[in-house]
């Protein structure tokens, strides 16, 4: 669970992650999920990256002290009002503009289709209670079931049958396998490309303990590597995030709120509650606005 964290410079250490994503582009209720086997691509340990939580006191990253209650992630009235205002403005822009000719509509449809084809794969990270993260690459046409299958295949034998659900925050949104409206959509339609981080929550509270090892396979823990720290940046290039700063989002055809950075599916992204390193990862993987036109 998240707690307010300090901010830091945009990381240049994510170039490899950006490059691999670009290459791929060229080419709630607790739910149990599927315990069945997954494809060899996902199940093979060599295809899964594991990142250890950072140790020590750094200005860029601090582990949470306490587990926050679910009520912490419920949007406030002001946040909900801002999100609603953004949706109203977007609806007015879509309905209040000039009528398009068939030719212009066709051109717009072609641009939207090209934008969707640009990213054929997406990098998925699952973050555990101690902030260990596992990462794999899935097709942009995959569904939430594949994300759950990948997650479950990474759990140790003794924990593989434990019920869990995946969510993103802030604001808190559960991606449940019981939600038919979500299960019918691809990861691309859910605006989870080219990269997304999910948090995992187990029904067994002991598995959510941030002071114990993550309940994943031993061979995955043994290959864990350090999460890259952000490189030093000149003061003029440093990312400044003011408290309560928000990033508005525009709605897509699927009815899901789309983030300009193509990271999460929420009305408002409260940067002050987002891990600094994850924020840098979002920033470096952001799709330029011009590519989405």
UniProtKB/TrEMBL annotation:
SUPFAM superfamilies, per the entry: Ubiquitin-like
Domain UBX: 117-200
Cellular component per GO, a single term: nucleus
Origin superkingdom: Eukaryota
Region feature (Disordered): 21-41
GO biological process: intracellular protein transport
PANTHER family: TETHER CONTAINING UBX DOMAIN FOR GLUT4
Identification of the protein by name: UBX domain-containing protein
Organism expressing this protein natively: Mixia osmundae (strain CBS 9802 / IAM 14324 / JCM 22182 / KY 12970)
Name of the gene encoding the protein in the UniProt record: Mo02652
